[in-house]
Amino acid sequence: VAIMLSNRLARKYKLPYLNSYFYYLIFLFIFGIYGIIGARLIRVFLVNQGLEAGTIESTCQFISFLGIPFLALSWYMFLRMSHEIVNRKMAPAFNYVFLGILSLAFIGLGLLLAERELLGEDPDELIRRVMLIGFSSMSLVVYAYSLALIFIHAGRFLDMKDRTNIRLFGLIYAVFTLG
Question: Each residue of 22-78: pLDDT tens digit?
Fold first, then answer.
C-alpha cells in the first residue's frame, strides 16, 4: 500500500523527493522480503529437510547477507530524499564516502561469513551480533543525520506551510524509527 501510494504521489506531483521516497520504500521492502522473510522461509525448509543446525544457520546468514545491498540502497535513497526535501544537493564526495563505507562493511561481513571457522566456538552467535549491531548503528546514523538535516534546514523555507509540513514529516519519521 505504501509503495503504491508513494508511486501515485510521485507521478502526480513530479517532485524529486517523492521519487527518492518511492525508491527508498522499494529497496527497503525488497530487503525485508528477501533478506529477512526469505531467510526465515529457507530456515523452515531446511529444518524440514533434517540438515545440521550449523548448515541451516550458515545458509540463512548468507541469504540475509545477499539482501544487504538493498538495505544500503534504501538508506542512500532516504538520505537523498532528506536532502531533496530541503532543497540541498548531495555532494559527490558524500556519495563516494557513504557508498565506500557501506561497500567495505559489506566486503568485511562477507569475509567474516567466509572465514567463520576462525571465529571460535560459536561463530553463528558472533555473526548474528555483528550484523545486528552493524545494522542498528548504521540505521541510527542514517536516520539521525537525515532527520537533523530536515529539522535544521526546514527553517530556511519562507512559507510557514512548507516549514510545518517538512517538520511534520520529520516528526512522523522520528516517531516511526524510534517506535
Answer: 999 999 999 999 899 999 999 999 999 999 988 998 899 999 999 999 999 999 999
Report how far residue 90's alpha carbon sits from residue 73's, in angstroms, rounded to the nearest whole number: 15
163 and 151 Cβ atoms separated by less than 8 Å: no
pLDDT of residue 119: 80
CA distance linking residue 150 with residue 167, whole number of Å = 7
127 burial via Cβ count (<10 Å: 0-12, 13-18, 19+): buried
String of b and e for 64-97 (b: at least 16 CB within 10 Å)? bbebbbbbbbbbbbbbbbbbbbbeeeeeeeeeee
Q: How far apart are CA 103 and CA 117, in angstroms?
A: 23
* Cβ contact 171:147 at 8 Å: no
Q: For cell 531467510, what's the residue? A: 39
pLDDT tens, residue by residue, 84-129: 999 999 999 999 999 999 999 999 999 988 888 888 778 888 888 8
Cα separation, 71 vs 27, in Å, equals 6
| Residue tagged 529477512 (cell numbers) | 36
Q: Give pLDDT, residue 99.
A: 93
Question: Under the phi-then-psi rule, with left for phi > 0, alpha for psi from -120 to 50, and beta for the rest, what region is 12?
Answer: alpha
